[in-house]
Amino acid sequence: MLTYKDIKKNEEINTYIRKADESLIELGYTEHSFAHVTRVASDASYILETMGYPAREVELAKIAGYLHDIGNLLNRIDHSQSGAVMAFEILHDLGMAPEEIATITTAIGNHDEGTGVPVNAISAALILADKSDVRRSRVRNRDIPSFDIHDRVNYSVRRSKLSIDDDKKTITLTLDISTRYSSVMNYFEIFLGRMVMCRKAAEKLGLKFKLIINDQRLM
Q1: Per-residue pLDDT reduced to its tens digit, 114-157
Q2: Burial of 12 (0-12, 13-18, 19+ CB in 10 A)
Q3: pTM score, whole prediction
Q4: Rounded-to-integer distance, Cα 31 and Cα 138, Å
Q5: What dotted CATH number matches 4-217?
Q6: Mind listing the pLDDT tens digit for each residue in 67-113?
Q7: Is the pLDDT score of 219 beyond 90?
Q8: Would you list the domain boundaries of the chain?
Q9: DSSP the chain
Q10: Contacts of 93 (CB under 8 A, 6+ apart)
């Protein structure tokens, strides 16, 4: 069976991830390259593994996480849908079973806010992992006075952690935000839709979503 290790060492896939991120650099977006997709793959697998899902589903979540942003190669608009089509072709050519291709492409096609819905466990894990990846190191613009709101919010996040409690009832995104660069209100201004999406994704997995910023529970 096709594994996450196979996907990570596939040069065709890595080329698409690299070139897609180059386009986003030109558009002024935060980092969407290997650091991001690897973290998303890791967090998505952590969620399903912690919740007791079968090992193969955990593996599929990792693959979906690694591939989820390749649609940016074509265009940022509707990148989840175009990425799902690209993933379909790639995984089909690599000989993955149709049922597994369907699961992964469904997750990729539903990971973005506005159109995405957590229709299965893997899509729910992917949404939570992707939308919680907020951190200073994703900001590529080093000219602080020229930061837009996305730069300010991401740069303000000194630490972020996604964790499931011991009784497996709550998943918590904990953020340490420096208000020197951005207010907590700025965070909600651009991320409220994503946090609502995270709440729905958590519910799909039988969890409650909790957001804690600077030791204060906000959701």
Answers
A1: 889 999 999 999 999 999 999 999 999 888 889 988 899 999 99
A2: exposed
A3: 0.96
A4: 5
A5: 1.10.3210
A6: 999 999 999 999 999 999 999 999 999 999 999 999 999 999 999 98
A7: no
A8: 4-217
A9: ---HHHHHT-HHHHHHHHHHHHHHHHHTPPP-SHHHHHHHHHHHHHHHHHTT--HHHHHHHHHHHHHTTGGGGT-STTHHHHHHHHHHHHHHHTT--HHHHHHHHHHHHT-STTT----SHHHHHHHHHHHT---GGG-----GGG--HHHHHHHHEEEEEEEE-TTSSEEEEEEEE-TTT--HHHHHHHHHHHHHHHHHHHHHTT-EEEEEETTEE--
A10: none
Alpha-carbon span 133 to 41, nearest angstrom: 11
Q: What one-letter code names the amino acid at 30?
A: T
| Token pair recorded at residue 14 | 């890595």
For residue 172, what are the β-bridge partners? Answer: 163, 210
